[in-house]
């Protein structure tokens, strides 16, 4: 299967800051380009951090209200997180404001890998790096969601060609494939149970697939023989990779 790569959906014109970019200039970049965050790079275009609207808001949040005591009369917060926030509240440059290290992906990573990284780290955008770890783009949640806009006919063709015929070496027409609004239905009878499991798992990994309806049956339950090498056991090999 040829899963879509981050490089094919990313934006190549990246709004960025350098370590010494002033606070006000960072705020201007975020406002002008209507983005919630941007990467901070060094002289070699390596990403050294990310600065976000939240980082700038800490500066405002740290400003005492009229009825509050001056900082010297308030108890010091000694937790590492509190110290980092206090430092950002006093920051005047992107390098002092930024969060480091930056969470990033590579252009050759798959869209699925990028989506998992976003969810895991709870971020909305990721700097994209080349093979030398230099900044080449930015990818957002909106960019990744474009894979679900693939036409049903295109998804069906890929499932038949790359999953069933090339991946599992099945005879053309042995499985009936229908796709409706991204939901793939597989129907038919295969030789082994492992083949049905592989067909479903591999289809689910196809770009643009929302869900898979499994209506496959099998003639032989090879659950107890998964480690046995049999001629043409391509499905077993695929299953071990999933």
From TrEMBL:
Coiled-coil residue spans: none
Name of the protein in its database record: CBS domain-containing protein
Domain BON: 152-220
Matching SUPFAM superfamilies: CBS-domain pair
UniProtKB keywords: CBS domain, Repeat
Residues covered by the CBS domain: 10-69, 98-154
PROSITE patterns cross-referenced by the UniProt entry: BON, CBS
């Amino acid at each position: 299967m040829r899963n879509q790569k981050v490089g094919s959906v990313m934006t190549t014109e990246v709004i960025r800051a350098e370590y010494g970019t002033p606070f006000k200039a960072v705020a201007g970049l975020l406002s002008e380009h209507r983005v919630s965050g941007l990467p901070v790079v060094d002289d070699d275009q390596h990403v050294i951090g990310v600065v976000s609207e939240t980082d700038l808001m800490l500066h405002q949040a740290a400003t005492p209200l009229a009825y509050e005591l001056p900082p010297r009369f308030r108890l010091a917060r000694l937790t590492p997180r509190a110290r980092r926030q206090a430092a950002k509240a006093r920051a005047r440059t992107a390098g002092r404001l930024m969060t480091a290290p930056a969470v990033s992906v590579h252009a050759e990573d798959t869209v699925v890998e990028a989506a998992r990284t976003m969810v895991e780290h709870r971020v909305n955008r990721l700097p994209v790096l080349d093979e030398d770890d230099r900044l080449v783009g930015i990818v957002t949640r909106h960019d990744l969601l474009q894979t679900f806009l693939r036409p049903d006919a295109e998804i069906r063709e890929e499932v038949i060609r790359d999953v069933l015929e090339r991946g599992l070496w099945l005879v053309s027409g042995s499985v009936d494939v229908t796709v409706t609004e991204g939901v793939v239905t597989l129907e038919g009878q295969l030789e082994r149970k492992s083949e049905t499991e592989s067909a479903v798992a591999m289809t689910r990994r196809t770009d643009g697939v929302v869900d898979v309806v499994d209506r496959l049956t099998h003639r032989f339950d090879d659950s107890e023989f998964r480690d046995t090498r049999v001629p043409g056991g391509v499905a077993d090999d695929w299953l071990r990779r999933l």
